[in-house]
Write a structure and sequence with these properties.
single chain, 498 residues, alpha+beta, FAD/NAD(P)-binding domain, Alpha-Beta Plaits, Glutaredoxin, 3 domains, eight-stranded mixed beta sheet, five-stranded antiparallel beta sheet, 12 helices, 30 strands, flavoprotein, FAD-binding domain-containing protein
Length: 498
C-alpha cells in the first residue's frame, strides 16, 4: 500500500480530514490537481462549531490571530445577534479561505501529511482489500490505498467515478464575486443593497481591499464560462450606478443557487466529504464549515477502521449523521435564496421575517442552525446530552482547572467521570487502549445547550473524538453500566477481553 488513505483535494475539508487521520496515526496522502494554492478567498469565515473543533485540537489560536471576530451574523441579509452564553466561541470569525487553507496545510505538514500537487484523480478501481487510484497531471502515477476520500469539490471526480448520484435543484440565478480595490467607495460597508433586478454587497476584508458580490436573478451563466473583471465591474455599475473606481482584482469567480447532495456518502472503499458531497447557495457562510465538520466526524471513524479497532459498519454512521446535517443546510439556503429575490412580494416577506427575528427564540433558533451548535446526531441514549456536542464546561482536575474541549487535543475518546465512580473505571478498563478516563469536577451546576436551554451538570459522559456525547449519566442516578459498555463497543470496537 502507498498509503492507508488517499484524500483527493487539498481544500479545507481534505486538509482537516488529513490532520484528523494523522492524529490517530494513520498514513495519509493528499492529492491535489492544482499546482499550488489558488489564493482565492472564496469562503470568508468560520462559525462557532468550527471554531470549537479547532479549539478541541489545540490550533484555534493560529486562526484567531489572522481573523477578525464579528458581533453579528445574518439570515439572507437580515441581521442576527449571537448569544454569547452558549459557546466559548460564540462569534463568527471573518477569515478568508486562502488563509484557512494555508494554516491547515502548515498544521498538516507538522503532523506528517504528504501533499502531492499537480495530481488529478482520473480513475479508481476497488476490490476487497483496497482502492487503486489513477493520477493524471505532470507526473501520471498509480497509488494503492485501503481507502479513498473525495474532498474534490462540487464537480468531484471521485463522486462521478464511484457512480454516486448527485440529485437536487438547478441554479436559478448567477452571482459574481471578487476581491478588488475601490478607491472611490464613500461607505465603509454596503450590505445586501436590493435593486429591482438584483442586489449587491461590498465588504471590507482587509485595509484597502473589498469583496464585491453582485447577483442577477433568472439569468444562469454557463458554468464553464470564465468570470471576468469586466463582468463584475459592469454588474456593479448596473446595480449601484457606479463601479467605485474598481481596480486591481485579486480574483473573480461566480456562483449560483444550485443545491445538490450526494445520494450516498460511501460506496465500498470510496467516501465523500465537503462540497463533493453537497453544494448549495453560499448563504450564511455555512459551506466551508459543514465540510470541516464532515471531516471531524469521519476522521476518527475511518482511523478506527483502518487501525482494526472497529468494524467497517462504523463508517455507515458517517452517512447517517452527516447526510441529514447537509440536507438541512440545503433547505435553509434555499429559503435564504428565495428571500433575496427582487420584487415587492419578497420585500414584504423580508419585512415580516425581519419582524420575527427580533424575538429571542427565533433569533436563537436561526443562530444555532447557522452555527451548527444545535446538531444532535441520532445516537441511542436517554441522557439529554447524548448526540449533542459536549459543552466546553470548566473542570477542576487533580492537575488544576481546565476545560472539557482541552481533553480532546489528541482526538481520542474520553470517559469523563464527574463523580468519582469506581464502577466507571472498571467498565472502561477493557477499552483503556482506546479511551481515556478522566476524573474531574464541574465548576458549574448547569451547562448551556443551544438554542436557549441548559442541563444540570452530569455525573459522567462518554465523549467521542469529534466532541459529541455517546453516553451519559445524571448525578441523581446510578450509571447504566451495561449501556455504557454497549456504547463503548458500538463506537470504539469490542473489548480487549471477553
Amino acid at each position: 500500500m502507498d498509503a492507508d488513505v488517499v484524500i483527493a483535494g487539498a481544500g479545507p475539508t481534505g486538509l482537516m480530514l488529513a490532520c484528523e487521520l494523522r492524529l490517530a496515526g494513520v498514513d495519509v496522502a493528499v492529492v491535489e490537481r492544482r499546482a499550488d494554492r489558488t489564493g482565492e478567498a472564496r469562503a470568508g469565515g468560520m462559525h462557532s462549531r468550527t471554531l470549537e473543533v479547532l479549539d478541541q485540537r489545540g490550533v484555534l489560536d493560529r486562526f484567531l490571530a489572522l481573523g477578525e471576530l464579528q458581533s453579528v451574523g445574518h439570515f439572507s441579509g437580515i441581521w442576527l445577534d449571537f448569544d454569547e452564553s452558549e459557546s466559548r466561541h460564540p462569534l463568527p470569525l471573518m477569515i478568508t479561505q486562502s488563509t484557512i487553507e494555508r494554516l491547515l496545510e502548515e498544521w498538516a505538514g507538522e503532523l506528517g501529511v504528504r501533499v502531492r500537487r499537480s495530481a488529478e484523480v482520473t480513475g479508481l478501481h476497488q476490490d476487497e482489500s483496497g482502492v487503486t487510484v489513477e493520477l493524471g497531471g505532470d507526473e501520471p502515477a498509480t497509488l494503492r490505498a485501503r481507502w479513498l476520500v473525495g474532498c474534490d469539490g462540487g464537480r468531484s471526480t471521485v463522486r462521478k467515478l464511484a457512480g454516486i448520484d448527485f440529485p437536487g435543484t438547478p441554479a436559478t440565478m448567477t452571482a459574481l464575486i471578487g476581491d478588488v480595490e475601490l478607491p472611490d467607495l464613500d461607505e465603509e460597508y454596503i450590505w445586501a443593497r436590493r435593486r429591482p433586478d438584483g442586489e449587491f454587497s461590498v465588504i471590507g476584508f482587509e485595509p484597502g481591499w473589498y469583496r464585491v458580490i453582485t447577483s442577477a436573478y433568472d439569468r444562469v451563466a454557463d458554468r464553464d464560462e470564465p468570470a471576468t473583471f469586466e463582468q463584475l465591474r459592469d454588474s456593479l455599475t448596473r446595480l449601484a450606478g457606479t463601479d467605485y473606481g474598481m481596480r486591481n482584482p485579486r480574483w473573480i469567480s461566480r456562483f449560483g443557487d444550485a443545491a445538490r447532495q450526494a445520494a450516498r456518502y460511501r460506496v465500498g472503499r470510496a467516501l465523500l466529504a465537503g462540497d463533493a458531497a453537497h453544494i448549495h447557495f453560499p448563504a450564511g457562510g455555512q459551506g466551508l464549515n459543514v465540510g470541516v465538520q464532515d471531516a471531524v466526524n469521519l476522521g476518527w471513524k475511518l482511523a478506527s477502521v483502518v487501525l482494526g479497532r472497529a468494524p467497517e459498519r462504523l463508517l455507515d454512521t458517517y452517512h447517517d449523521e452527516r447526510h441529514p446535517v447537509a440536507e438541512r443546510v440545503l433547505h435553509n439556503t434555499r429559503a435564504q435564496s428565495a428571500l433575496t429575490r427582487p420584487g415587492p412580494q419578497t420585500d414584504a416577506l423580508r419585512d415580516v421575517f425581519g419582524s420575527l427575528i427580533v424575538f429571542d427564540d427565533v433569533n436563537r433558533h436561526l443562530c444555532a442552525m447557522l452555527t451548527a451548535l444545535d446538531i444532535r446526531y441520532p445516537i441511542d441514549g436517554d441522557h439529554a446530552l447524548v448526540g449533542r456536542r459536549v459543552p466546553d464546561a470548566d473542570l477542576k482536575t487533580s492537575g488544576g482547572v481546565g476545560r472539557i474541549h482541552e481533553l480532546l487535543r489528541d482526538a481520542r475518546p474520553v470517559l469523563l467521570d464527574l463523580r468519582g465512580d469506581a464502577e466507571l473505571a472498571e467498565a472502561v478498563r477493557d477499552w483503556s487502549d482506546r479511551v481515556d478516563l478522566v476524573e474531574a469536577r464541574s465548576e458549574d451546576e448547569h451547562w448551556p445547550v443551544p438554542p436557549g436551554s441548559e442541563v444540570a451538570a452530569p455525573a459522567a459522559l462518554l465523549i467521542r473524538p469529534d466532541g459529541h456525547v455517546a453516553w451519559g449519566a445524571d448525578l441523581d442516578a446510578r450509571p447504566d453500566i451495561p449501556a455504557l459498555r454497549q456504547a463503548l463497543t458500538t463506537w470504539f470496537g469490542p473489548p480487549r477481553r471477553p
